[in-house]
Write a structure and sequence with these properties.
homodimer; alpha+beta; Alpha-Beta Plaits; seven-stranded mixed β-sheet; 12 strands; about 35% helix; globular
Chain lengths: ~300, ~300
């Protein structure tokens, strides 16, 4: 039977001033998934390591995405999906998106690339809906396309790849729970026009900085005057992490997704390592367990390993 | 005595989703200015054609800008400024900015380029303050830098040149008065977060489209869900102009500055001319006098002609 192994990477959504529209694919960590084509219309989920993820396909992000895809296929086929989860659920670095995107990319590969990337994003959004109640693409799009992606619009879907210079990403995941639904609920439904203007000046600067390889402009534009001041209150140590990481040379950064992970961008690996040391010091001091990653931007997204 | 002649161009501020941050320099129309260096600390304003512009330097946009510059110079010098105004005041295509920017660029030239472009923007903003009560740079920056400029921030000043592909600009100026102060007053101080997100997705797309020479992306991103729905009510014919110009092939467009001028971007001159014909038809039909321009983006800004 046809089978494929893939690596499905972590992603950072809500890149600072790019709330709900800008996401970035990371080289690490990655989930490892094995997907097998079946001759029967069913979806089987196997969780290799124990994260208490649902095995009912319709309640599982990978499963729901594949079910949406199968809905568009008339053949008597199905998939068996085995997930080795290395991206901890609830960490804010796109764990659910990795399952959803990984599953549809793998299945599509086994089907001879019947579907295009936009179709895959649409299927994987069914998985995000299971995970968070909302169809959003700001983790899925970078996970599938790689690199940095702008989701200009969901309906109609409009995904734009944003080229960027070499960047190192340091992530710290303090081991506390921030529910996506809580993180969304504390946001105000209205914002000041003057703040919105500052935010869209910043995202315009950030996109220009990425495409023009202008590190200084990227750094100046990594400012969020709307979401971060509210959500950062849910993350112990946030203000100190941000301040000291910038003192250590980071270009800037902020909350990854809806938290609790915090990410920082740096121009080179040495700085990214110093930034990691700063994060470790702070969370050791406040006695919170944590995990850190020093990685780069992943330009290819989900990677097919072998059949 | 040293003297210089310059052309100071019209500009389009508030490029659709880029309210308050994105401006664009036009090849036409241009004010013509003669600026003469004087051996006495005074500023003389001569209005060549009659637009009832103040001749008291401190109340004139060119004069106030030059006074701000002279404040930073210890020498006993002054300037005589003669303005032939071809950009009608109140048209919404940067008439006051052309006077202010033109004056400081000309004066700086006569001083051997003592000041940098950022300094010139700061001086010219004093002129904008006289004209509209607010220091803003979204006409001045493109007028001085040329091309399309992002004003990411005013304090501190952060101006970013945004490269763009060849674009034709059609402008219609319906001869009605829209006061900048009125246009600002009708805006709500708060906006919905979901609208703000859509707007910053669009400006990110527009900037990416400009830099990547992606006309389709530029076209899709030329959408303003916050300012235009409110301000367009002040401009008779706006909705019809926008709809029919897009049907005629325009990439998109919107209100120029705070109106009443409307601008449309096109990929080639033939389309820009068809767009002009559409505008002419509509304003003939509703019996409003108007003026139209078909022009291009001006990459150099204020132009020094001779001494």
């Amino acid at each position: 039977m046809k089978e494929v192994k893939i690596y499905s990477p972590a992603t950072v959504a809500n890149i600072v001033c790019g709330f709900d529209v800008l996401g970035m694919c990371l080289a690490e960590p990655c989930d490892v998934m094995h997907v097998k084509l079946l001759a029967e219309k069913k979806v089987v989920i196997n969780n290799i390591n124990n994260h208490q993820l649902p095995t009912d396909a319709s309640q599982n992000t990978a499963g729901a995405s594949i079910l949406a895809m199968l809905d568009d296929i008339n053949d008597e086929i199905g998939f068996e999906i085995s997930i080795e989860k290395n991206i901890k659920p609830g960490s804010g670095i796109g764990s659910s998106a990795a399952s959803a995107a990984g599953a549809v990319v793998a299945a599509n590969h086994l089907l001879g690339n019947k579907f295009g990337n936009e179709d895959l994003v649409r299927y994987a959004m069914f998985g995000e809906k299971v995970a968070s109640g909302v169809k959003h693409a700001d983790n899925i799009a970078p996970c599938i396309y790689g690199g940095i992606t702008l989701i200009r619009s969901i309906f109609p879907l409009d995904i734009v790849s944003i080229p960027a210079p070499q960047l190192y990403v340091t992530v710290v995941h303090p081991q506390i729970e921030v529910r996506t639904s809580d993180a969304r609920q504390i946001l105000r439904k209205e914002v000041l026009l003057k703040d919105a203007i500052r935010q869209w000046g910043n995202i315009a600067g950030l996109v220009a900085g990425f495409i023009k390889n202008d590190y200084e402009l990227i750094s100046r534009s990594l400012e969020d005057v709307i979401i971060e001041p509210v959500r950062s209150m849910l993350i112990p140590g946030f203000d100190e992490v941000k301040l000291k990481c910038k003192e250590a040379g980071a270009l800037g950064g902020g909350i990854s997704g809806s938290g609790p992970s915090i990410f920082m961008l740096s121009k080179n690996e040495a700085t990214a390592r110093s930034v990691e040391a700063v994060m470790i010091n702070i969370y050791n001091k406040i006695e919170l367990t944590y995990h850190t990653y020093v990685t780069t931007i992943n330009d290819h997204g989900v990677k097919i390993i072998n059949e």
